[in-house]
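Attaching the record inline, Q. Sequence:
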Amino acid sequence: MDALSKDVIVRKYLSFLHRAEKHDISWKKAAVYVGGEKRLERLIAEGRIRYHKPDGASNTMWRFNFADIVNNARPVSELTRFPIDDPRMRPALASFGVGCTTFEL
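Structure, as predicted:
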């Protein structure tokens, strides 16, 4: 993969994180994205995930910053097993809109 293609992917990721800063998600969804409740609790204790619990009733939901959740998401093993230049990664890259028609692997 050439440097220009990597630059495009990085810019898209940073753009996504910028938009995700404005969104919150629930405890249940956050736990799914980061890889479990124990890992979520550890990331909260380390201060790597911002959260808030609205005042009021004791049963109000915790809300987590979506950008922090994405930054700390557990990688999917099918996508991290091979280097990005490997031909076996072409279907995964194509599913994200990055295919062989855009650049030559």
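The first strand starts at residue 24 and ends at 25. The chain is about 50% helix and 5% strand.

More tomorrow.
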